[in-house]
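batch_manifest entry 22 of 60
target: ABC transporter permease
source organism: Halotalea alkalilenta
requested by: lab member K.T.
priority: normal
notes from requester: please return tokens only, no post-processing; we will run our own comparison against the previous entry in this batch. if the run fails, retry once and flag.
--- input ---
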Amino acid sequence: MARASVYHRLVVWLLLLVLVLPLAATLLYSLATQWSASLLPAGLTFDWYLRLWSEPRFLAAFGRSLLVCVGALAFACLLVLPAMFVIAYHFPRLDAVMNVLILLPFAVPPVVSSVGLLQLFAGGPLALVGTPWILIGCYFTIALPFLYRALTNNLQAIELRDLMDAAHLLGASTFRAALSVVLPNLRKGLVVAVLLSFSFLIGEFVFANLLVGTRYETLQVYLNNMRNGSGHFTSALVISYFMVVLLVTWAASRLNRDPSSS
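--- output ---
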């Protein structure tokens, strides 16, 4: 039993080492003044990070990524929340159909979707290619499965019908009961789903590169365009991006943790 435990711990530590080692090397390279023909860097500096966070083009790309992600998630919440409530309360049998429909965005590869969207929205009355609106639409479809699954689990956990019946007995209308009773109970699952979706969306590259490219340069497109520049600078960019995603994921994990387990 003890030997098995040691073996399992060894496997876990090896896996952790494989995952952390590339990030640690990137972090060290982003802090190096020079690192070419020696085993260790010549010196350490934060100069690459100072250059990065004072670069107007990077800040603009970061702001655009935030704007597109927040816009897509806000749009998804406004549409998904009422639809989820109606399905769960009035048409629970549609849940099986919805479980299939929400997986469709993952059934089509992003490159194939992008080619179709380019043909549809490159010209004509809805010339959206090159604008943030087409990215918001694409990101909405990507975020939809995350939001739907999280909210479905939340709705099943709160006994929706019993809550609504109790609110109706106390004189509340269906709209008021949904807004004042059901929505606060969904807050935790909604926030976690939004944060996890944000962590995924801010790293999206295929749609951003093919549909808008440099016309609306987002963070991942900026990173791709800077690949021929200084390796220290791009390493600082990768670590900064990773820290943002790590911070958001940590916040989602903290919110999703059961208080009784701490």
